[in-house]
Amino acid sequence: MTLTALTHVKHTTGAPAANTVHGWLEAVYDTLNGAMTHWTVTRYQNGGATECLYFTPKAGQALTKNVRIMIAGADSGTLTPTMGTNSSFANSTLFMAMVIGAGAFDAWDAASPFTSHDYYTGFCHAGLLSSIAAEKFEIFETAETLWVIPVVTGAGVSYRGGGCAGALIDPESSVSTNVSATADSRVWAISTFGSTTFEQGWWIGATSAYLFYHSSTSNAPKCLFLHPDGTWDTLRCVGPYMESGGSPRWTQADGSPWLLPCYGAEQAGGSKVLGRLREVYMGPYMLYGVDIYNSADERTAYGLGSNRATPYGALCLKAA
Predict the structure, then answer these.
(1) Which of 59, 66, 100, 205 is the most exposed place for a label (fewest CB within 10 A)?
(2) CA quadruple 284, 189, 196, 271: dihedral positive or negative?
(3) In whole angstroms, what separates CA 154 from the centre of its chain?
(4) 249 neighbors 225 (Cβ within 8 angstroms)
(5) Is the separation of the CB atoms in 171 and 161 below 8 Å?
C-alpha cells in the first residue's frame, strides 16, 4: 500500500534574542505557539529557561500512536537525558528525539521523558552549537512529520544542523519485514544533521558528514528507523547524484524543474530498501531561499538550497 501524500507547511522564526539553546527554543516557541496546522507545541521551562519543546499531533495516525517529537537542550548544568545511538550529551547544543506511545510529559532529561512509552529514540545530536550564530529557524510540519532547521548567518552556508522526525518513509508495500513495529504500515524514523553538516541536498546519504546517514561520531548526523523487531536501527537515505555539468539545466518533459524521489535503506543491511521518503525529493541546482513553482505560478515545493552564493542540488519538500 502507499500512504497518503504529505504536504509541508512552513513557519519561519525571527532572530533569537540570544544565541543559546534557551534562546533558540524560545524563538521557535514564540513562532509556533497557537500557529501550527498539524501539531501543538508545549514549552518546558527550568527556572524560567526554556529547555524543551515537545510537539503533540492534532489528528490522524500520529495522534492515534501518541507520537511526540522533542527538541531540547541546556546551556549549563549537569544533565543526563537518555541519548540515542552513538550520541552523547553536551551543553550548549541542540538535540532532537521522538517517542511513540507517549503518556504524560514527565521531564525531558529523565530516563523516559513521558510517564510511559512504547518506543523512544533517545536524544540525537541535532547539531547547532551556541558558538554558531543562528539567524532564524525554519520549521516544516506535515500531519505525520516535523522538520526543524536552523539558518546560520554568513555569506555562504545557510543551513547547519537541525533534524526531522515522524513517519518519514512510505514502504510502498505492506510486507511485514519492511515496516515499523507499530502495525500501521509506516516506517517511523528520525534524522538529525549534526554539527559537522553544513549542506542539505546534494550530499544526501553520501558520507558520515552529511544528512540522512548514520554516523558513529557523536556530533555527526544520526539516522534511525524503528525496525520491525522493535529496535531502533541505523538508516541511510539516498538520492540521485547529479553531475554538476548537466543537472542545473535538466528539466522534466513538461519543462518544469526536476524532482526525483529519495529512498531509505537499512544502513547495516546491505541493499534492502525500506521505502521512499515521503514527499522529500532531490531537486535542481538552486540557491538558498529559492522554491519550485509550476506553470501556474503556484509553489509546488520548498527548496532547501544549501548556499546563498553558489547553487547546489537541493533537497525539496512538497508544499501545501
Answers:
(1) 59
(2) negative
(3) 22
(4) no
(5) no
3-state secondary structure of 131: coil
- Tell me the C-alpha distance between 81 and 75, whole Å: 14
> Among 238, 259, 237, 249, which residue's Cα sits nearest to residue 311?
249
For residues 95 and 78, give the distance between their C-alpha atoms in angstroms, rounded to a whole number. 16
d(CA 303, CA 300): 10
Q: Using one digit for the tens of pLDDT, what is the confidence trace for 139-193?
A: 999 999 999 999 987 767 787 889 999 999 999 887 888 899 999 999 999 999 8
Give the integer Cα–Cα distance in Å for 234 and 149.
21
Gap between the Cα atoms of 190 and 96, Å rounded: 8
Strand partners, 164: 147, 191
CA angle 114, 119, 122 (to 5 degrees): 70
pLDDT tens profile 3-56? 999 999 999 999 999 999 999 999 999 999 999 999 999 999 999 999 999 999
Report how far residue 215's alpha carbon sits from residue 232's, in angstroms, rounded to the nearest whole number.
Answer: 14
For residue 111, the Cα-to-chain-centroid distance in whole angstroms is: 23
**Three-state SS at 265:** strand
Separation of alpha carbons 41 and 32, rounded Å: 7
CB 60 within 8 A of CB 157: no
* Cβ partners under 8 Å of residue 124, min gap 6: 83, 84, 85, 87, 95, 96, 97, 163, 190, 192, 222, 224
